[in-house]
Q: What sequence folds into this?
């Protein structure tokens, strides 16, 4: 079935803004998911005195939504202070485009988080933040899982009620995700997305994810 895109999405896909790479960039990051095949690279020029983003460019490796969200995201952050960008929601790029099909909402998350990742690396470089060892808690895991979008509903797994259980037992992390019986087709994709986001924590924990039907039967 053909996906329906807004005119603004099509415009940014066919005529992407700020495409390319900044030479000698102040900040750079690549964000992506082999599970869905979309990746995006950002390079930024940041004023060291004002911390304003003076220039930003992107390169996209993915679908039309990936290109469009990255394009609109560069326009959204241009000229803004990095702290303002850090507070942006991950669905704002999709909203700015007038919406995306649910199965493509993850592209908005990718677009915004890619820019935030570049800013985070810049702040480490200038000593504005310290790269401390991440403390793993249920709350921190839920925050990470909010970046995983259910492809059927276009809503993150936490707000969509898919996280049935989280348990941290020493160095072991157990996560149980529940899907409706007719959502089995999404199980593999969701599992890969969840594992990729959790492994990005670069912690020493053993991570185990189980996906089951909300009726109680394992998928």
A:
């Amino acid at each position: 079935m053909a996906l329906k895109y807004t005119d603004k999405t099509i415009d940014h896909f066919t005529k992407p803004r700020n495409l390319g790479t900044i030479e000698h960039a102040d900040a750079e990051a690549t964000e992506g998911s082999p599970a869905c095949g979309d990746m995006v690279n950002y390079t930024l020029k940041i004023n060291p005195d004002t911390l304003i983003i003076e220039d930003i460019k992107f390169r996209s490796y993915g679908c039309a939504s990936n290109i469009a969200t990255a394009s609109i995201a560069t326009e959204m952050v241009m000229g803004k202070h990095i702290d303002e960008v850090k507070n942006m929601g991950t669905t704002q790029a999709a909203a700015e485009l007038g919406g995306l099909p649910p199965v493509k909402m993850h592209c908005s998350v990718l677009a915004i988080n890619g820019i935030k990742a570049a800013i985070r690396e810049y702040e480490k470089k200038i000593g504005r933040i310290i790269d401390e060892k991440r403390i793993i808690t249920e709350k921190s895991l839920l925050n990470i899982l909010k970046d995983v979008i259910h492809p059927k509903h276009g809503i993150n797994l936490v707000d969509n009620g898919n996280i049935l259980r989280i348990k941290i037992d020493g160095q072991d992390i157990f996560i149980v995700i529940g899907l409706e019986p007719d959502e089995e087709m999404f199980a593999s994709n969701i599992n890969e997305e969840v594992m990729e986001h959790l492994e990005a924590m670069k912690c020493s924990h053993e991570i185990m994810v189980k996906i089951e039907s909300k009726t109680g039967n394992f998928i």
